[in-house]
Specification:
Elements (H helix, E strand, L loop, with lengths): L2 H4 L6 E7 L4 E7 L7 H10 L14 E5 L15 E5 H8 L3 E4 L3 E4 L1 H9 L6 H5 L18 H12 L2
Antiparallel strand pairs: 1-2, 3-4, 5-6
């Protein structure tokens, strides 16, 4: 979908107007959403004690992120397919820049990093890149730890390989 439709907000059917300077155009669109299991969020946040696995912040800003993106047909709603990430690290994960990988090691997507540099959007990138190779935390209970298989697959999907 276009930038205009992605900025329009949530809802099954939406319409909005765009002012082009001379006259306003009206667009209508449909948005498709994948059903979510409301228990997924609770399971993941409970497993991680509502704490971001990257920066250890809580502050009521921690979210449950799917390792295998929720849009994939076979993305399970299990705690083993989840990570607790603060809003900042969740966005960096969804944007495929900072990626928790197998072995509890953070990885940087060098292609995404290079793109940001080439497009003049690199302010703060050095702080994110300094996290590469560092460990992130996972629950102590093995039953709640992220699956290395899911982490590998999530990396491939997000990095486009």
């Amino acid at each position: 979908h276009s930038d205009a439709t992605s900025q329009a907000g949530l809802g099954a059917k939406e319409s909005f107007e765009v002012d082009t300077g001379k006259e306003r155009e009206k667009f209508a669109f449909e948005r498709y959403a994948y059903p979510r299991d409301p228990r997924f969020k609770r399971w993941v946040l409970d497993a991680y004690d509502q704490t971001c696995c990257v920066c250890q912040r809580q502050l009521g800003i921690v979210q449950a992120a799917h390792i295998i993106p929720h849009s994939e047909d076979d993305s399970p709603n299990t705690v083993q397919n989840g990570l607790a990430l603060c809003v900042e690290h969740h966005r960096l994960y969804d944007d495929a820049l900072l990626l928790p990988g197998p072995g509890r090691i953070l990885q940087i997507n060098k292609n995404r990093s290079e793109y940001l540099k080439q497009t003049g959007q690199a302010k703060g990138l050095d702080q994110i890149e300094s996290l590469a190779g560092k460990k992130y935390t996972i629950p102590g209970d093995k039953a709640n730890q992220p699956s290395d298989e899911y982490l590998e697959r999530g990396l491939k999907i997000r990095m486009g390989s």
